[in-house]
Design brief:
Blueprint: H1 5-9, E1 17-29, E2 33-39, E3 47-52, H2 53-56, H3 58-63, E4 69-78, E5 86-97, H4 113-118, H5 120-123, H6 127-149, E6 153-154, E7 160-161, E8 173-174, E9 184-185, E10 188-189, E11 200-202, H7 207-217, E12 219-227, E13 240-249, H8 253-274, H9 276-290, H10 303-312, E14 316-319, H11 320-328, H12 331-334, H13 350-361, E15 365-371, E16 387-395, E17 399-406, H14 411-421, H15 429-436, E18 442-448, H16 449-457
Parallel strand pairs: 3-5, 6-12, 14-15
Antiparallel strand pairs: 1-2, 1-4, 2-3, 4-5, 7-11, 8-11, 9-10, 12-13, 13-18, 15-16, 16-17, 17-18
This protein binds one RNA strand through strand 1, strand 2, helix 4, strand 13 and strand 17.
Length: 477
RNA sequence: UCCCUUGUAGCUCAGUUGGUUAGAGCAGUGGACUGUUAAUCCAAAGGUCGUAGGUUCAAGUCCUACCGGGGGAGCCA
């Protein structure tokens, strides 16, 4: 019977006859005996198969190359060698699939992440990407677990959206028109002849629909793919990414912050308890990676220390106004080190956020109550008339990991804001109905799933924490 | 989109102020080896130096453009 390696390695029982199927990581050995590291993806660890050369013959052994798929029947025994607890003494070997050694690109050696990015379909077979993907899964599972246990409902906001005024970024257009022959009428493109009868796009946010869910089911969350057609070429942006957006009726900004903080702590803690091997491997990987960096650029804490630190410490909570005051009093500002000048009303730049998070507080920081002019129309206008009930959660190395707010519940105030920003109210009539009928305070936030995975894995490029990244000029696989 | 940086063997890299036939490690191939741990040892093989122009007696090296990669910025999650 086939056993997964993860199961086998957690057993204490030797002498059992088992079948293992997996892919060859390395083969080594001498004249009489060969050792094959088999990995089946269930765990970081490979199982060493011990193969008597005489018993199986040179011809079979030659076919066992890095990347080949094997089925091995054998006896699980305590290992004679030092590198592992157990090994599988082979009794029968079936080659399920060959991997031509000349052309298989993944070698048992260190590859650069850049090279592996070009082989995204095969990089998943490396220790690093196996670990990342298992952690990613654990985080996704933890997201559902957290919300389910807190009484939230998983709410499926649409991927295809017809509202073209969400203002969260450039949108991808969807059409069924023959692009070489787009129908026109006197007003231009004849959208009424297209599939949906009007211009439609891929969603840039499920929030507005999420609010409808919250204003009926009480508390909901979305967790789905999100698309931005921005020409962003950075290590923190993807054209297709996964976003988590909880929305809670009757919550205010403070509740929202509490939810965000406990949520992040919960999901990180789940990986600490369930992904120890993978996290330890990623921690080691990071240490090796940073050896080539000057001391000043290395992280002060190891990966696991950072994760525990986030779980065990309260996030700093300051208002935008306090943050600006802090920046004005900071050394880099006084010495003129900031590229962008600081004054009340500006949108905080990366360098400002970095200073607060990485230099000043050295903790996750929640900044609230931003000037209304630099935030979205749906955020609740504060009593001062100048700021809104927004909150951004900033993480070291990542920047903004969460953006959220208490929503404007008052219809008239919301209409004024929409007019100021230039969003025609007819476009969002359905959304405004939440304020017309039984409006109530409510709040929510959006969390970029890949940014969370970045933080937990210690990776530095967002293209390495999603199986098949989509970025400008790149949609392979 | 802007700024910086980079492109040499399958991979990771070296290649001096421009100078003769471009090197190494790893992988792969052939062989050796008493249970290996990124096994080890020996041997042969592997290159249009990103592409196109230009400067020069001479270009991997200098200049220009384009293409690809990376980092930073903007936009954001």
């Amino acid at each position: 019977m086939r056993k997964r390696i993860k199961e086998l390695l957690s057993t204490v029982e030797t002498g059992a006859k088992v079948t293992v199927k997996g892919w060859v990581r390395t083969k080594r050995g001498s004249k009489n005996v060969a050792f094959v590291a088999l990995n089946d993806g269930s765990t970081l660890h490979s199982l060493q198969a011990v193969i008597e050369v005489e018993k199986f013959g040179e011809d079979l052994l030659k076919q066992i190359t890095t990347g080949a798929a094997l089925s091995v029947d054998g006896i699980l025994e305590a290992s004679q060698g030092g590198g592992q607890k157990f090994e599988l003494v082979a009794e029968e070997i079936t080659i399920l699939g060959l991997a031509d050694a000349d052309s298989y690109p993944i070698q048992p050696k260190k590859h650069s992440l850049e090279f592996l990015r070009e082989k995204a379909h095969l990089r998943l077979r490396t220790n690093t990407f196996g670990a990342i993907m298992r952690v990613r899964h654990q985080l996704a599972y933890a997201v559902h677990k957290f919300f389910h246990e807190q009484g939230f409902y998983y709410f499926h906001s649409p991927i295809i959206t017809g509202s073209d005024c969400e203002g969260a970024g450039e949108m991808f257009h969807i059409t069924n028109f023959d692009l070489n022959n787009i129908p026109h009428n006197e007003n231009g493109i004849a959208y009424e002849d297209d599939f949906f009868g009007k211009p439609v796009h891929l969603t840039v946010s499920g929030q507005l629909e999420g609010e409808l869910g919250a204003m009926s089911l009480g508390q909901v969350y979305t967790f789905g793919p999100t698309f931005r057609a921005e020409n962003s070429n950075t290590s923190r942006h993807l054209a297709e990414f996964w976003m988590i957006e909880p929305e809670v009726a009757f919550n205010d900004l403070e509740d929202n912050m509490n939810l965000a903080e406990s949520f992040i702590k919960f999901v990180i803690n789940e990986t600490l308890t369930n992904c120890q091997d993978d996290l330890l491997f990623l921690e080691e990987r990071e240490v090796n990676e940073q050896k080539s960096l000057p001391q000043a650029q290395r992280s002060e804490m190891s990966l696991l220390e950072r994760l525990r630190f986030v779980v065990e410490n309260d996030f700093i909570r300051i208002t935008y106004t306090e943050a600006v005051k802090e920046l004005l009093n900071s050394k880099p500002h006084k010495k003129g080190k900031f590229e962008y000048p600081v004054e009340w009303g500006i949108d905080l730049q990366s360098e400002h956020e970095r200073y607060l998070v990485e230099k000043k507080y050295k903790k996750p920081v929640i900044i609230t109550d931003y000037p209304k002019d630099i935030k979205a129309f749906y955020m609740k206008l504060n009593d001062d008339g100048k700021t809104v009930g927004a909150m951004d959660v900033l993480f070291p190395g990542i920047g903004e990991i969460i953006g959220g707010s208490e929503r404007e519940a008052n219809l008239d105030t919301l209409l004024v804001r929409m007019e100021e920003v230039g969003i025609p109210s007819e476009e969002l009539d359905w959304y405004l109905d939440t304020r017309r009928f039984g409006t109530a305070p409510h709040a929510g936030f959006g969390l970029g799933f890949e940014r969370l995975v970045l933080f937990v894995t210690g990776m530095t490029n967002i293209r390495d924490v999603i199986p098949f990244p989509r970025t400008p000029q790149n949609a392979n696989f």
